[in-house]
Fold this protein.
Amino acid sequence: MAARSKSVRSGNGPANSRGKPTLRTIADITGLAVTTVSRALANAPQISIDTRNRVRQVALDIGYSPDRAAQRLKTGRTNVIAVLLEPHEEILGYGTSVMAGIAKALQGTSYHLIVMPNFLNAANIDAINYIIRNSMADGLIFSRTEPLDPRVMLLSENGFPFVTHGRTELATAHAFVDYDNFTFAYEATRRLIAKGRRKLALISGPAGYTFAGHIQHGFMTAVREAGCAYEILSDIDLDSPAGAIRDRIRRRYAEKDPPDGFACGGEVCALATITGMTDCGLTLGLEYDIVAKQTSQLLGAIQPRVDTIYEDLTATGEHMGRILLRRIAGSTDINELQLLLSPELPFETQAAGAAS
Amino acid sequence: MAARSKSVRSGNGPANSRGKPTLRTIADITGLAVTTVSRALANAPQISIDTRNRVRQVALDIGYSPDRAAQRLKTGRTNVIAVLLEPHEEILGYGTSVMAGIAKALQGTSYHLIVMPNFLNAANIDAINYIIRNSMADGLIFSRTEPLDPRVMLLSENGFPFVTHGRTELATAHAFVDYDNFTFAYEATRRLIAKGRRKLALISGPAGYTFAGHIQHGFMTAVREAGCAYEILSDIDLDSPAGAIRDRIRRRYAEKDPPDGFACGGEVCALATITGMTDCGLTLGLEYDIVAKQTSQLLGAIQPRVDTIYEDLTATGEHMGRILLRRIAGSTDINELQLLLSPELPFETQAAGAAS
DNA sequence: TCGTATGATGAAAACGTTTTAAATGGACGA
DNA sequence: TCGTCCATTTAAAACGTTTTCATCATACGA
């Protein structure tokens, strides 16, 4: 019935130049117009239920899937979420953990996750410019913010949806997920004090990043409250190679008044600290203690058990994904776009909440 | 001069509905036709040098960049390379190392790297089907092949360009980069024997993967040559959590004739082995030795220095990238599509070569 | 002077969608 | 009987490229 008026296609098969079925193929088979098919698949209310079902069935039968390039060209939306991965994230699969979380958040949506590895050119403001200009994605996720992060400024100015892992101190609010590194460091330091340690040392993040400041602040608050001696280990940080940290620990121990308690912002650096101390003939839990941030199962191999405080990077990724989707959908409600994860609370019971 | 005949655009600015300059914008400014502009930017020889330069200059001035969606729709090419990342690769940034290499290979080309994280659904043949059907990419890279890998079969059947990290035993040749795990294991075992160890144990990859078989084969060859006692530690493998390996080592030590030399396929598992042995009061280099495969700087933190054999994952990624580009360009010459990396040779001097 | 080769440019169609605006055909109230 | 409204469906344009096929000077050999 209802034969097409003009330019009837040869057969009913996937009569496409590239071999893949298109809307046109379905239109030919059903005798409907391309418009109707498009609408039916989009579940438009103006198309009768019967037609919608019929079209859906045919689409299923012939294995139709929409051409993303065409959709993208027409709508201007990419259906892509980009993650900016940086060199530092090589260590211990930070990237993969976070990405697993993001992927989880994107599951069931039409969004794809693409990773823009920034391994090559350190100037990552360029990468962001590139993404905006080439409209490579509908939204962006990246990490390790600075207090006055230029990337955040650029994206904000352009109204490009994004979520950061980490806070800034910029006036214009933006979407973020952050771990409460102040509380982490405060708690870690308190634990060291509770273990009877009296000369505490901190290995924090690289200077310049917001989270490094938070860690330092938490550490300082705790040592000052307790009135105990402290130091922040210079020349090294979280990202330093294990060997460098190990050497630094050894050198420090050769000087006077070496620390007997270490707050470590990461696992590798805890590991390196232990190694350095072992070099000096000292035993963890006996002559000194460590409290470290844990993001993987690495320290599970270490003995004796290192005292850790957990940061769930996969959950972080999942939150960032969800928040970004909200932002892309148009939300500007800061309360549902910002999330500060506490070290204590497990993922499930975590509630959204604003932060400074 | 040369005013456009019909439908002259309002101004000379980015008179686009979406605000971004297009070929049309350049055409209006230069007074040329869209066709000519397209050709000029593609550096077509039929366009005069003068025009080419003029067009390029204008494009630069107004910040033109081609719309990938439109190019993609028209040409059918996506300019995208996809990497299938799997859960196991979380450990120690395998994924990120490899991706850094791939990104390096893609640098300067028009290709983008996108990562399809397969964290969620273990059935990753689906992911591949999805990529093929939705033509998400022009080429694919993935790892951990099985001898009769169904993914390889599917891709081969569809003529979809891909490179695997790892070999298969399929009849139809395909592009791959692989590390010579036989030689790695053989060499590692020989080193243990040279250190005077006489009861050797192997921690290999998960059963079913091609590389696990290669490791086992290398190990067996070496122990048989030397005629020394050996065992393959059951119940655990490379991917086992550190705690599980540690426990397994402890249990094994409680039994009779414990091994005094360990060949470990990975760093975390070496670390866990050391921990387990330390639990039993044994010292590395004294009562036992380890030779492990090294893919990161993790073991640099460990003391005493663990004997390792290096696998350069970034180089692997770079090779895979280059080979995939060749394959996409149409090469079917197996000699330039297959590469077996030897443990010994540094990256620079590595030459392409066929493999079994 | 004419036809033709040559070198440069252009018009129009196509890729597969979505969207705007219009058409169709009853049903219904007057 | 006629106009109006509603529910469906459709035609056509558009998104920004690339590509096929034409056009148009100009120069050139005869």
